[in-house]
Specification:
mainly alpha
């Protein structure tokens, strides 16, 4: 993100320069807080998707008998592989979300 551009301070106004410097400091702090909150929200979303994948991967094989009754029952190994794949993807998403939180300033 680019920092805000302010006009140069007037040469004979020390108080004005101090006010502008304080305004720049506050704006930089605000920008940093916004970036941190966006990173937290993104990581929370990715972690929620990971949790949903765990639930999907673990409970679909358990309750799959009723779900797949009309479509034809997939084999135990296919269900297990799908559950394991969901679990692995969920773990990778969680690790990615934690790494993204490392960008906090």
């Amino acid at each position: 993100m680019s920092s805000p551009v302010l006009p140069p301070p007037v040469a004979d106004s020390g108080a004005n320069a101090a006010e502008q410097l304080e305004q720049l400091r506050k704006e930089a702090e605000r920008t940093k807080l916004i970036a941190n909150e966006r990173a937290k929200l993104t990581a929370t979303f990715v972690n929620t998707v990971a949790g949903a994948l765990i639930v999907t991967g673990l409970f679909t094989p358990i309750f799959g008998e009723k779900l797949f009754e009309k479509l034809g029952q997939p084999s135990f190994w296919i269900q297990s592989l799908a559950g394991l794949l969901c679990l692995v993807i969920a773990i990778l998403l969680h690790i990615g979300a934690r790494a993204y939180l490392g960008t906090l300033r």
